[in-house]
């Protein structure tokens, strides 16, 4: 494998940030070797299919919906949790497909989103300072020295949690659950009395009638009962992503088999850093987060380094500018990339530029800011004549109270009720559905 990807030692000799510090090098070595023996989680052919679909997005012919938890947890590997997340993503995708009449490429932040970059290495509570929580793949959420120690064995747990999640996702999306005729059932267990749910039910009714018409006409098509759903996560941990990188027996090229699409975070995308070095060798479709300080030349440099051959669908730029900056910062980046003749998918992450802390100490985002950033994103693309290719959101299927506003007008004091995220605040189900309707309206204009 050596000529196709660097060794782990070579990677670790490169500039790198946001990596765990393990005390037991032998144990880490054992873990990496064990992971390298374990089966791939996804197949190269599936990654290629997703890349082809993203190429359609780059070509203005489809829209990406990418969403899920900020940080998945090992505890969260439960059927009900995975099912409700999938259900909200499928409901959103139906809203987008039906209301905006565009094909939707469905990608979860799921089955691998266990590692987090942090702005501070430590966390202080009272007189005690401990290592920051870096996601279940690295250490525990509990604020104790034992739990916050970086533990390489958690990488094996990450693999197992990802495998169990992906197994259930695959069963759901091919086993009838994702059948479009289940539209009402996806909704059944949720509050029916909100404006949003009512709107959804109404649309589900319309779709049902249209489907009934098609079936009565004799149209029978598997595409109604099976959906293509892909898994993605931030490829943060070099040890894990390296261990999951395998040579495809068909194409003889390396793929990161930990997920179909992997992305590079805003904090780890140094062009000469280890992250970029590993990912530029693998053939998966790649996401690249771009914050408000990105220059057009930065985006071009990254694209050239990660995709010198301009493979269609390879690069998705995920812009997370902030509601107050998107109109000012995004246009020059898009223009610079467009001028090179490169076709990429432009996706808006309206979450990460809009985080703030409330007076009562919760990290939150307001639904209004999320909508405002998305409106800015759509306006910029309208002005430039480019295609607003998708949205990347942090959400959950549960009725949590982590983001302010939305149909139920959640206030700062409401956050106490169900604030459950292990990291960033997520849209709950009704906020997510409401957002899907808002996006569909923009796509329709
Ligand atoms: C994230 O997606 O959770 C994240 C940390 O994003 P970013 O790299 O854009 O800050
Ligand atoms: Mn996040």
Explain what you see.
- By secondary structure, this protein is α/β, with parallel strands linked by helices.
- The chain is 40% helix and 13% strand.
- The chain contains 14 helices and 14 strands.
- Helix 4 packs across helix 6 and helix 11 crosses helix 12.
- The mean pLDDT is 94.
List its traits:
445 residues, eight-stranded parallel beta barrel, two-stranded antiparallel ribbon, 14 helices, 13% strand, binds manganese (II) ion
**Element string (H = helix, E = strand):** HHHEHEEEHHHHEHEEEHEHEHEEEHEH
Distance between the termini: 50 Å
Chain oligomer state: single chain
Helix content: 40-55%
Q: Structural class of the helix and strand makeup?
A: alpha/beta
Return the average pLDDT rounded to an integer.
94
| Total strand segments | 14
The molecules bound to the chains, other than polymers, are: phosphoenolpyruvate, manganese (II) ion
Main sheet attributes: strand count, strand direction, barrel closure: 8 strands, parallel, barrel
β-strand percent reads 5-15%
Low-confidence stretches: none
